[in-house]
Amino acid sequence: MSTPEARPAGPSADWARADVATSAVGGPSAGGVPADGPSRIEDARDLVGVPDDTQRLWTPHRMAYIGGENKPKDPDDGEQCPFCAAPGKDDEDALIVHRGEVAYVVLNLYPYNAGHLLVCPYRHVADYTDLDDAEVREVAELTRTAMRVIREVSHPAGFNLGINQGPVAGAGIAAHLHQHVVPRWQGDANFLPIVGRTKAVPLLLADTRRMYAEAWPAPEGP
Questions:
Q1: How many C-beta atoms lie closer than 10 Å to residue 218's C-beta?
Q2: Is position 98 annotated in a ligand binding site?
């Protein structure tokens, strides 16, 4: 096997090489061992445009999520918190489905599945144990109502319900508590999220918000 040349430190177009062990007449074999003959190092620039058997679904819009575009720089500052800012906007702009007394329901801007709702207290509080009794009751009631509305409109096979408590548990914005209500359908965990790390969400957020808001039950009279 030939030995790669020593490379200078730092990126350089002249050193854009692919250290891929390939056989003299074919591709790599199992385990990286050449199947028929000595291996060589090929210049990656010679392979541009060569097709392979991998399909690609380009999702550049997700770069906003990956780059943390909407995350507050100071997570403890309520003025930067999107869950604090949302109630001050129009329902359509903020994707709010329902406003309660001490909590509200809003669509997840980066949904795992179509119809992914969040139940948030208005108060900027991080931990579930810090909710007062009224907030605990309304978060629970809104979660139950959200399930009923989603069942009526979207007919899921089941749900994931939960609170990611803290960054280590997966909370994107850990400083403001939010309960996830995620509808699930048979087969929604197919090859796209498992292999491609991509979710196909067929319904626009604005349409989802409108349908859920229209189906949300009116408050009962005194």
A1: 5
A2: no
